[in-house]
Amino acid sequence: FEAAERGKLLVPRCNACGKSHWYPRAVCPHCFSQDLAWNEASGRGTIYSFSVMRRAEVPYAMAYVTLEEGPTMMTNIVDCEFDSVKIGQPVTLRFVPSENGPPVPVFKPA
């Protein structure tokens, strides 16, 4: 959470096989090694899939974003017209405040 407070997204990377993964876990899902380290993500990714929710209090877009480092994470797309969001679209990281915790990573069109 300290990294999020500084506007940084950390992603677990396996020192044995060199692959990054998301969500954080104690064992590498690729090779089952426990030799993991936290590395700063570039903050760049590509929309893999998305859906715009229009029945909530405020419309919002949920998406799976594939990071440059390899893993795909569920997140929100912000700061854009939702009708312009497309699969394969480049996005960049930003953080938004949460109600009772650390800032939350979201993405906006690049």
Give a verbal description of the structure.
The protein has 110 residues and is mainly beta. The chain has one domain: OB fold (Dihydrolipoamide Acetyltransferase, E2P) (Beta Barrel). Helix content is 4%, strand content 43%. It contains one helix and seven strands. The strands form two sheets. The chain has a five-stranded antiparallel β-sheet with strand order 5-4-3-6-7, with no helix packed on it. It has a two-stranded antiparallel ribbon with strand order 1-2. The model has no long low-confidence stretch (mean pLDDT 94).
Provide a quick synopsis of the model.
By secondary structure, the chain is mostly beta strands. The protein is built from one helix and seven strands, in the order αβββββββ.
- Tally the helices: 1
Instruction: Using the CA coordinates, give the radius of gyration.
Output: 15 Å
Largest sheet: 5 strands, antiparallel
- Whole-number tally of structural domains: 1
Structural class: mainly beta
Average of pLDDT: 94
CATH topology: OB fold (Dihydrolipoamide Acetyltransferase, E2P)
Q: Which series of helices and strands comes N to C?
A: HEEEEEEE
- Output the CATH class name: Mainly Beta
Overall shape: it is: globular
Distance between the termini: 25 Å
Strand order, main sheet: write it out.
5-4-3-6-7
- CATH architectural arrangement: Beta Barrel
Into which percent range does the helicity of residues fall?
Answer: under 10%
Unreliable parts: none
